[in-house]
Design a protein that fits this description.
The protein has helices at about 20-30, 40-50, 70-75, 100-130, 150-170, 190-195, 195-200, 205-215, 230-240; strands spanning about 10, 35-40, 60, 85, 130-135, 175-180, 250-255. By secondary structure, it is of the alpha/beta class. A seven-stranded parallel beta sheet has the order 3-2-1-4-5-6-7, with helices on both faces. The protein starts with 8 loop residues before the first strand and ends in a 9-residue tail after the last strand.
């Protein structure tokens, strides 16, 4: 299978590192014009330099896309995209009884409303052109709600609802809407979360991550954390022409953590 994005314009939110950055690399390698996003000019510039893509085929937008004004500024600067990857997100463990309303609101605005706003902005243009892809990066935590991150799991379930409903709203337009559900993945954010355990144990990050998976996600079949590239591969496929009959789906890249055949 040869996936070709030549001539396609792609926006990937929250893409200066982790899964989003890996997806940006994949899209560039397949010929797309890619706009990456981060909160600061410094992080965006560093990511563009690290990507090293062909001149003119990778650009950056600095701004917090959970903010309406930043979204409006982005849409004014880039009025059309063929592919929208709603990857922006925050996570972190916190006990339910100690999580204030402000954190629930922050997680919802970042993880859910950023994708809602941008899908609302770019979906109609895709539909009018008869082709488009909208992908929400959810999580296995949206199905298997973690007891130590209920506020996070709630937002990831909400993304599944938005993705499925929007796929129905865009029925017959040539625009597909899907959700990708990673499991534990060795992103920079996870590396930071496990940093203290790595330093304390003297083990490699991969070993510590595998121990975390086997302790806290014991249903995992691969028995390790996924690599960001493994998740990016699914994002690229579902964004491709070859995935034209896949829409309204929740596609798991969770290493088998969610114990179901469907």
């Amino acid at each position: 299978m040869i996936i070709d994005f030549a001539g396609r314009r792609v926006l990937i939110t929250g893409s200066t590192s982790g899964i989003g950055f890996a997806a940006a690399k994949g899209f560039l390698a397949a010929g797309a014009h890619v706009v990456i996003n981060g909160r600061s000019e410094k992080s965006v510039a560093a990511a563009i330099e690290k990507l090293g893509g062909p001149v003119g085929r990778v650009e950056g937008f600095a701004g917090d896309l959970s903010d309406e004004a930043a979204c409006a500024r982005l849409v004014a600067e880039y009025p059309d995209f063929d592919i929208l990857i709603n990857n922006l997100g925050v996570f972190g463990p916190q006990d339910f009884f100690e999580t204030p309303n402000s954190e629930w609101r922050r997680f919802f605005e970042v993880n859910v409303m950023s994708g809602v706003q941008l899908s609302r902005a770019y979906g109609p243009g895709m539909a009018s052109r008869g082709w488009g892809r909208i992908v929400f990066i959810s999580s296995e935590s949206g199905v298997n709600i973690p007891a130590d991150m209920i506020h996070y799991g709630f937002t990831k379930t909400a993304q599944l609802a938005v993705s499925r409903g929007l796929a129905k709203r865009l029925a017959g337009t040539g625009v597909t809407v899907n959700a990708v559900l990673p499991g534990p993945t060795l992103s920079e954010g996870v590396a930071e979360m496990l940093k203290a355990d790595v330093e304390r144990s003297g083990e490699s990050l991969e070993k510590v991550a595998a121990d975390f998976v086997n302790t806290h996600r014991s249903s995992s079949i691969i028995r390790r954390a996924a690599r960001v590239e493994e998740v990016a591969n699914m994002i690229l496929y579902v964004s491709s022409e070859q995935a034209s009959a896949t829409t309204g789906a929740a596609l798991r890249v969770d290493g088998g953590v969610v114990d179901t055949v469907i």
